[in-house]
Every structure is written in structure tokens, then in C-alpha cells.
Fold this sequence. Notes:
Blueprint: H1 10-27, H2 30-39, E1 44-45, H3 46-53, H4 57-69, E2 73-78, E3 81-86, H5 89-102
Antiparallel strand pairs: 1-3, 2-3
Amino acid sequence: MNDPSPELDPQRLRGAAAQAAATLRLLANEDRLLLLCQLSQGECSVGELEEQLGIRQPTLSQQLGVLRNEGVVATRREGKYVHYRIADPALLEILAVLYRLYCPREDAR
């Protein structure tokens, strides 16, 4: 009768906290956050990301590699072009909240 509910189980909470902290560390890099914000709008090629965000190729490749290794973006090859998209639906939800809080619309003045 003294079983803690699944939501309050300390072991599960610890695991969830570790996962949340890892996601927050991933988002704590400005270039990665910019990339993810852009990708939240839809799939983009590397060239499109470089042009739209002004992140130069070495940094862009490095940060896309981090996002790929963490499994939050997926790729699709079309000829010589590689297209990226967000693969984690939970991340899209987080980005939507960040956008709402930190990217006010111009016409809201």
C-alpha cells in the first residue's frame, strides 16, 4: 500500500531529470538553438541553413553533428544535398514554448 505513484517514484524522477538536463544542455548553445529553431519550421539543406542563419560551414557542420549524435535531428540525402529535420517531437514542443516566450511577434508592440 505504500508504493509511490509512478509520477513520484524517485528513481523515475531521477531518470527524467537526467534526460531533461541533457536536453537543456543541448539547447544551451546559441548556434544549436538557432539551428533547431530554423528546423522547427521545416526541413532545410545545409546550404539553406548556412544562408538563412549566417552560421559558417565549420561551425554549422560541428553543431549539426552534435544534434545528429544526440538523435534530435534526422537527415535525408537528395543527390549531393543533405536535408535536416527535427526527429524528436518533444523537442518541437520545447521549441514552441521558447519561441512563445522569447520571440515576440513584431506586431505585438
